[in-house]
Design a protein that fits this description.
Blueprint (H helix, E strand, L loop, with lengths): L4 H17 L5 H15 L3 H4 L8 E5 L4 H9 L6 E5 L5 E2 L2 E2 L6 E7 L6 E7 L8 H15 L5 E7 L5 H7 L2 H4 L2 H31 L1 H6 L5 H27 L7 H24 L3 H22 L3 H7 L3 H14 L7 H26 L2
Parallel strand pairs: 1-2, 1-5, 6-7
Antiparallel strand pairs: 3-4, 5-6
């Protein structure tokens, strides 16, 4: 089906004029941008308390013995130390993998002697984060061994061997950062501008017979759909740029992030087009949109608890878009998550095909 650029331009102007007559439709976008401003002007509680917080530490040993038993017995209550065998620590290649923001003390026996080699691995840039732990560890160790040195020591920064695994295994409290909140705001903007707003406008046009009237003009269904998608995607990208500029200005120059946002917007517009095409009235379309949001949120929550729902979430584009947006905001992975990006592209293409077919058959009637 051939499309005409001048006709698309006229249809796009019609969408702009309707928005100018009803600017309150973008009220939620303004509220989300205001939340981003408040977030940028404040600091999370965990950052405000960072100077007084003791960094969690893992003490990893290879063989159990009297020294390990003495460490466990003398561990003060409330000190965030986990004494664990190396067999129970997750690995990434030849290295142990620790949660993000944690430090570690590895007790490694030397094969050439009876001594131990102790490695102090600290998170961040300051090795002094281990100081509160060492104030307990050293007196206890010295009391057990006496003044005879029984080990060599090494202090090295804790490298992230697999950031993607840290992202997948971290808890909500560890992930509750500016990047996570920013990702949530971006997803809310995408849903409102590309799904809810499109459903509201399209179902209103369909209920009033405006879409049927447009289809009887030289404009075809493809041109009507393209104009709607350009209009809503422009609003979505503009609002996303505002939020990113407030919370993470460096992310504005990441092309992969913008591709993910655009693909997410296209997927949500396809969902909105399908809902508006199947529902006969605006009330029904709005109700189906609300159901889509609630069911999606429920499935994602159950996916973190039950394996069957976990597989189900992997068949949705929201699963990949949320992970990709957060990963690129926090770690700037770029194309390192290419399989997830390809899955998002594939699911977007499926939704676009479904939405185009449904709208062509009955969406304009």
């Amino acid at each position: 089906m051939r499309v005409s650029t001048p006709i698309i331009r006229v249809l796009l102007g019609r969408e702009i004029l309707r928005m100018r007559k009803n600017p309150s439709a973008l009220l939620l976008v303004g509220l989300l941008v205001a939340l981003a401003l408040l977030l940028a002007a404040s600091r999370p509680k965990n950052q405000l308390q960072q100077t007084n917080r003791v960094v969690p530490c893992w003490i990893v040993y290879s063989q159990d013995g009297p020294w390990i038993a003495d460490l466990k017995a003398s561990l003060p209550e409330g000190l965030p130390v986990r004494i664990i065998s190396q067999d129970k620590v997750p690995r990434s290649g030849n290295n142990f993998r620790y949660p993000a923001g944690h430090s570690a003390i590895e007790l490694l026996p030397q094969r050439s002697s009876n001594q131990f080699h102790i490695r102090y691995l600290y998170s961040g840039k300051d090795p002094n984060v281990l100081a509160p732990i060492l104030m307990w560890f050293w007196p206890t160790t010295t009391e057990y061994f006496g003044n005879t040195p029984q080990f060599t020591q090494e202090v090295i920064p804790l490298q992230k061997t697999n950031p993607a695994a840290d992202l997948a295994n971290a808890s909500v409290s560890e992930l509750m950062t500016t990047e996570l909140v920013g990702t949530m705001l971006l997803c809310m903007v995408q849903f409102f501008t590309c799904c809810h707003l499109l459903v509201s406008f399209s179902s209103q046009d369909r209920e009033r017979g405006t879409l049927t009237a447009l289809a009887l003009t030289p404009a075809n269904t493809a041109e009507i759909l393209i104009a709607k998608y350009i209009f809503h995607l422009t609003i979505s990208l503009s609002a996303s740029a505002l939020i990113l500029g407030i919370l993470k200005p460096a992310a504005l120059s990441q092309p992969v992030l913008w591709c993910v946002i655009a693909l997410t917007g296209l997927s949500l517009m396809s969902v909105g087009t399908t809902i508006a095409s199947l529902a006969k009235t605006q009330v029904t379309a709005s109700f189906l949109t609300l159901c889509y949001m609630l069911v999606g949120g429920t499935v994602f929550y159950l996916g973190s608890r039950f394996s069957i729902f976990g597989y189900l979430t992997k068949a949705t584009f929201e699963h990949y878009s949320f992970m990709l947006i957060f990963a690129n905001m926090k770690y700037n992975f770029g194309i390192l998550l290419l399989p997830s990006f390809m899955a998002l592209t594939f699911l977007t293409a499926i939704w676009l095909s479904i939405a185009t077919a449904v709208f062509h058959r009955r969406g304009w009637q």
